[in-house]
Amino acid sequence: MITSRRFIETSGLFARNVATMWIVKVTDMTFHQSFPGRILGYGTFILESAAQDQALNKVDFIPYPEQLYLEACDLLFPKQDSGD
Questions:
Q1: Phi first, then psi: what are they for 49, rounded to 5°?
Q2: I need a surface site. Which of 2, 12, 19, 25 has the fewest CB within 10 A?
Q3: What is the pTM of this model?
Q4: In angstroms, what CA-CA distances link 2 with 14, 25, 33?
């Protein structure tokens, strides 16, 4: 899940694992989509931050990765208004 403040990844069927990262801590984000992922409509987000150890750095099986990547980039790196 991506909110206006955090990335949150929840996983696990019997034991629940939750990893979060504040959006302001993200310095770079990329996505990878393999050939099977292109056919089936999923991809992987790779998040980078200035922190050494991070609980959330790779999120697999993201649906609609291109669309979500663009929306997440708008949250991460908002366009600055020139003020004209």
A1: -140, 170
A2: 12
A3: 0.72
A4: 23, 14, 19
